[in-house]
Amino acid sequence: MCFAECLEKLMHDNGVTNYRLAKEVGCSATTVANWLAGKDIMPSFLQKVADYFSVSTDYLLTGEEKEKAPIDVVDEDLRDYLDELRNRPEMRMLFSTTKTATKAQIEAIVKMVEEMQGDK
């Protein structure tokens, strides 16, 4: 899988538009469209796109993640959380987006999720 295909899949899977990605990584929507059309991406933008989607640059370029060394985790719940972050791009994106949030922002997000779960 080439960069354009990987980028298109990540954008589709995460509901990200050209405009939104451009705004997040600091380029124009036309530049994103050019990447999707197969134009080369500058290394600085490649890293920004990888960070935005919480994937490696290897994944963006090849569609495959390099094998990672296993993490020794004693807590089974923590191991399950790590597996979710590894295997679900939307969870990596959620974590990446919220890892710099303030305590008040996290509390508001938790409240919103709890309310959503109460709607079931």
Task: Write a structural description.
The chain has eight helices and no strands. With 120 residues, it is mostly helical. Helix 2 crosses helix 3. The chain starts with a helix and ends with a helix.
Keywords for this entry:
120 residues, mainly alpha
Quick synopsis:
With 120 residues, the protein is mainly α.
Task: Provide the fold topology.
Layout: H1 3-14, H2 18-25, H3 29-36, H4 43-53, H5 57-62, H6 76-87, H7 89-98, H8 103-118
From the spread of the alpha carbons, the general shape counts as globular
* Helix percentage: 55-70%
Total strands: the figure is 0
C-alpha-based Rg, rounded: 16 Å
Strand percentage? under 5%
Q: How do the helices and strands follow one another from N- to C-terminus?
A: HHHHHHHH
How far apart are the termini? 38 Å
Question: Largest sheet, described in full?
Answer: none
Please give the count of helices: 8
Structural class: mainly alpha
Regions with pLDDT < 50 over 5+ consecutive residues?
A: none
What's the mean pLDDT score?
84
